[in-house]
Request: fold
Amino acid sequence: MFKRSVYKTFLVLISLAILIYLFGLFPNPVQKYYSTGFYPYISSALRFISALFPFAIGDIIYILLIGFVFYKIVRCYNRRKSLKKQDRIVIPLQILNFFLILYIIFKMVWGLNYSRPSISEELGIGNEKYNVKELVVLGNYFVDKTNTLKLKQSKIPTYTVNELETKSAAAYSFMEKRNSVFRYTNPCLKSVLNSWIISKIGIEGYYAPLSGEANMNMNLPDFVKPYVSCHEIGHQLGIAYEDEANLLGYLTASNSPDVNYQYSANYEMLRYILFEIRMKSPDDYKTLHAKLLPQVLADFKTEKEFWRKYNGDMFGYMDAAFDRFLKMNNQKKGIDSYQDIVIWLWNIHKKELTVAN
Reply:
């Protein structure tokens, strides 16, 4: 009887999982019925519930899930000698059922957003690729913009997570007047339970789909926190891919009336652009790097030292590996690579820029 029940449950769950998977193959229906239909309600409800707790309940859920899995593994191992023949079928089915339930819940509360059309389409941002000369012009634009904003800053605030939540929600509210994509109800931004572990892993923040929380690594330097908070809120709004969340975070923070948010957004985008220029045109990278104000360079140094503090060995290895990559490939391999966020930045700002022939 128990075996039959497990088998029936498996059939129901696998059928649901297949239907959800097939639905995800059609971006436009996903956008219409899920991303702008069902999802805004479920995500808002999750944020409302999660906001009642002063700590990141998503982290608690994940800890409990991991603990449950380990408990089941140990229990199964201890019972291995007393297992019956039918358990060879029942136990694997139970495991499959567990992961199918997680898959279905994940897809329903957030995961189907991976199948929606790119947010750049909804915002009317083109995908025209740039050449190296245009990339350098874009880099020069962001160097000048970042320098200018740095001079406007007085003192960088020491943010609390509540202040970030309030200011970032206000920035999204401002952008909502331009496009409903930015509508953000029931704000819920939390500090991760253990910033030390997250810093060691190298994570700035993350979205917890099961609780609807945007989680911040509050150990980060304060000048990057405004952008990171806007980025994570982008995930809350159903923007699944990182580059697309970068785009929403940039548009929101850079258009905020708060100069610290503007600087944070432009500083972060400058990092992406300089990384690409460093691969495609090292000489231009050196020229642009030399144009940065000492205060901006100090921020680069602060951030670099922050990550080195938590994962110094890996940080040094990655630096060396990147330099070796450039030398071995003579910078040619990187010329044909593109980051979506840099493509979108080019398409957003190209009308403001003049590229010499």
User: Anything to note?
Assistant: The chain has two domains: 2-115, 119-352. The beta strands are 189-191, 205-208, 213-216. Residues 2-115 form one domain. Residues 294-329 form the longest helix (36 residues).
